[in-house]
Amino acid sequence: MQGDEIADLIGRVALGDRRAFVALYNQTGPKLFSICLRILKDRTEAEEALQEVYISIWQRAHSFSVASGSSSAWLAAIARNRSIDALRARRPVADELDTVYDLADAGPDPEMQTVTKDEGRRIDTCMEELEADRAVAVKRAYVEGLSYQELADQFGVPLNTMRTWLRRSLLKLRECMER
Description:
By secondary structure, the protein is mainly alpha-helical. It contains nine helices and no strands. α1 (3-14) packs across α2 (18-40), α2 packs across α3 (43-60) and α7 (132-142) packs across α9. The chain is rod-shaped, with a radius of gyration of 36 Å. Residues 24-91 form the RNA polymerase sigma-70 region domain.
């Protein structure tokens, strides 16, 4: 059957012509069933999906426009979409939720969070024992990621002096943390 004939049948179905609907089903049913079967891979589900496809065609035939595209493409899109909907409906939502609950939380547990906070407080306390400019240099080097040369330029000291500042500051921090 030609596309014009199918489009004509769809137009008649839009007017409520039951004979046109039967003719449309007889002409396009095998093709649309094959689309449903290919997607669902189950004959019973494909038959049920095909039934829903033709219900949809009966209800939406008035929305088909020859200017908008091929009648066969319109019918195939309805069959494909109904089949995909049926495929999605196969998996119960509860199963998905159960698997989500089984996933382990990748974040630290409350005990680790407390330990981390305590260590952070200890580091802050030890940083206060350093001279102010040394503490700022350590933060900029190890938190902000500035290089020794960038720090030396910012503080207006030679490169080797900056290295000495950082090395001595880290030694003081280690001593403080071990107490």
